[in-house]
Amino acid sequence: MRKIFLNLKNVKYPIYIGKEIFDRFPQICKRHGIKSHLAVITDKIVADLYLDEFLRLMTKNGFYPEPIIVNAGESSKSLSVVSKIYTNLIEMKLRRDESVVAFGGGVIGDLAGFISATYLRGVNLIHIPTTLLAQIDSSIGGKVGINHKLGKNLIGAFYHPVFIFTDVAFLKTLPKRELICGLGEVVKYGVIMDKEIFKTVEAELEKILNFDLKIIEPLVFKSIQIKTSIVEKDEREKKLRMILNFGHTIGHGIEAGLNYKRLKHGEAVMFGIVGESFIAFERGILKKDDFEKIKKLVFKVGVNFPKKILAKDVVLKHIGYDKKIYSERLNMYLPVKIGKMKFFNDVGFGEIERAIEFLFDQN
Amino acid sequence: MRKIFLNLKNVKYPIYIGKEIFDRFPQICKRHGIKSHLAVITDKIVADLYLDEFLRLMTKNGFYPEPIIVNAGESSKSLSVVSKIYTNLIEMKLRRDESVVAFGGGVIGDLAGFISATYLRGVNLIHIPTTLLAQIDSSIGGKVGINHKLGKNLIGAFYHPVFIFTDVAFLKTLPKRELICGLGEVVKYGVIMDKEIFKTVEAELEKILNFDLKIIEPLVFKSIQIKTSIVEKDEREKKLRMILNFGHTIGHGIEAGLNYKRLKHGEAVMFGIVGESFIAFERGILKKDDFEKIKKLVFKVGVNFPKKILAKDVVLKHIGYDKKIYSERLNMYLPVKIGKMKFFNDVGFGEIERAIEFLFDQN
């Protein structure tokens, strides 16, 4: 088991990372002074797989965990689910000095994080991320929140956990599609910061897609290092943190253009990575060789670009929001080579349009 | 116009205080870099009295304020009202770098504060408290929140404004009952920290109850000084901040015992002040003379203790919650003289019971 600290201006906490370390979780709780009574928020899928084990483990070690189980999926990130969970917590008399464990993927982390930030003006939060995406991305950085019927993640807060507990063994039961979503973020980290990560994914793609944890664990560790280093340098999504949005401008347009169906976030981001790399390539700042590598790797992962069910102008609309922006210039980090980004404040809408056209022109 | 800074570990901001200073508000906004587009959350009563003036003033100075008006009263501190306001803010496209003005009393401050803390993970908040209670107490210290059907203020956050703008001229239109509620807190500040405040209220009670702003303004100023000094020393409701709960243990029991009807919070707290002073008197740590002064002042304000509609055991139940606590000892600050408190960790339930009986014995 290794440890990475997230060291922010007002708060510092560890991320514990390892393979098959679940049985050490109760001791770590004790080390952090976590009180015995705690709520564990999870979804039906994770509950079926791991909740019994979690409860047995915790109870055996003197804890008194009470589970709250929500439906799996984005629909649980709603104010009505939040409202029900508040009721559960009040009924179980969870106190201000007790804790909420977020046990699941990104949805659970966001939801339970928002609950922890707002129940009794804030209770202790512990993340146990169980998906690749949650382990290397969404659990780190303090963003918590829920959706509004008019848009995603519009309601939320910045709220940090006491610690994050990341056991890659949970990934064994992950559906392949979820693995691929996380892999999109790994590729992103490679392109923006670390060409070694990129090379590893290139070389070991087959093993990764076969859930080889010996390959995946160091990738998770390095990815967490990258995410924490960026969050530390720029806690509140200012300029530097925008580097993490690589692939997300176009990715978000694709995702929203499909009404958040068919493609998952991580899958859409992968196409966004190709699209935004295309902008860099077209500008002449990214060499053809590097651009081809990125494109090849993304398409090799095996997700098909949903050209038949997606309309170009809808994607554009979702990126541009309204017509005014067409003449505006966007702020964006673009790759100048694999592992290195540069900030630009003059990305035109026409460039984005051509990048999307490029995606539509692939096989 | 005077200024008091609230100087916390991670944040520092000014409270502007004066009489008839409303027309200086736009300039202060500009000084703090507030963007022109902003939402102002207020209630129907404040809107009727002051919203036109606010909008005219702001518009004249180049701002673009959009009002959101809720019903007056505690019922607006609900998740359903919060949900509607989120929709309003999204529809007016309020951005992360824009602001929410909380224009009203404690309910509006709590509600708009919670909204500001959670909309887009936090937008700028400006408090314009319009009641005495909000000016000297609830707007200061960062506590924001809403109610749950199972209890008050169970949902919330710590979230600080960019600045607080306190014009005592708003108090001219305050209903007398609301003035008395605020006065309860002023008396509390006197007992816990500043015998001069206590003496002023004793000497000038009639003028205060006649809304004499020349007397009220310095009381507001001193009260804010006391509240800020305590919050600064103990931001997160640890031991010292408990001093502010003086009168609230018993006061809350009375309030809850009436199901939050009939008596307002500030009125209940006044009886709580007498009750908790009685405990100190009975212990022999508070002299009879000081205790009598406190009792006399509170009863002179003219609120009747609702003995006919209140049941002793219901009050006790609301303080004790369940039987377990009867044998427990409570932490409580008690007055040792007017202007000075001492911390005790051994207040027994029997003492509280006798204090409540004492209140019931007053005519």
Features:
cobalt (chains A, B); alpha/beta; DHQ_synth_AroB (chains A, B); 363 residues; 3-dehydroquinate synthase (chains A, B); Rossmann fold; globular; homodimer; nucleotide binding (chains A, B); two-stranded antiparallel ribbon; 11 strands
Q: Poorly predicted ranges of chain A (pLDDT <50, ≥5 residues)?
A: none
Strand order of the largest sheet of chain A: 1-2-9-6-5-3-4
Rg value of chain A: 20 Å
Question: Residue-averaged pLDDT of chain A, rounded?
Answer: 94
CATH class of the largest domain in chain A: Mainly Alpha
The ordered H/E elements of chain A are EEHEHEHEHEHEEEHHHHHHHEEH
Subcellular location (chains A, B): Cytoplasm
Protein name (chains A, B): 3-dehydroquinate synthase
GO molecular function, one term (chains A, B): nucleotide binding
Family (chains A, B): Belongs to the sugar phosphate cyclases superfamily. Dehydroquinate synthase family.
How would you characterize the overall build of this protein?
2 copies of one chain form a homodimer. With 363 residues, chain A is α/β, with parallel strands linked by helices. The first copy, chain A, contains 13 helices and 11 strands. Chain A folds into 2 domains: 172 residues, Rossmann fold, CATH 3.40.50; 174 residues, Dehydroquinate synthase-like - alpha domain (Dehydroquinate synthase-like, alpha domain), CATH 1.20.1090.10. Chain A has a 7-stranded mixed sheet, with helices on both faces. Chain A starts with a strand and ends with a helix. The mean pLDDT of chain A is 94. At the A-B interface, α3, α4, β7 and β8 of A face α3, α4, β7 and β8 of B.
